[in-house]
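Question (not urgent): is this output format expected?
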Amino acid sequence: MLRSGTIKTLGALVVALSVGALVLLWLERLPAQPEVPLQAVNGLTPAGHAVIHETDVPLQAIKWRNVILHDIGKHGPAIAEQCHFLIGSADQYGDGAIVPTRRWRLQKAGDHIHVPGHSFEECSVGVCVLVDSRRVAPTRRQLAAVIHVVRGLQLACHIPPDRVYLHSELGEQGCPGGRFQGRAFRDRLIPATR
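Got this back:
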């Protein structure tokens, strides 16, 4: 037979666990708050930032720790299907259009990066520019869109610039190709906050 003190303790524990679970569910539904006010970031407006929040489930900002940039040159269009965002071309979606994929909308891991000994798939957002930058440089609109979406991801998911990679920096030579303006891209990322 249980004593009165034991029953009260168990009752208090059940109440505390229930309240804790409700608080966690409530917090999970809140959008991540950027460290920098959106208006303070040159060229990124709150309306433009909305594409990052186009999800069918709550944005799992804490999950995403890296951004990996690809193009379709080396792997063909199949790589685009494995990424979270596509940057459109004149032939597909419109030049510079930012298209969140089903993987992003469902906050699912990508299948766009394989680095032996590391689990980048689970925590890396894949962004694919629909251009073969081995042969042709991305258009100005495509480059602007890449910068826009990556900066939005940096804000929403608190990703520092040293966690934004070109696929080629992780061992996959030629992705993106040599005509991708890597330096111009890096110069436009949001600097790390101190």
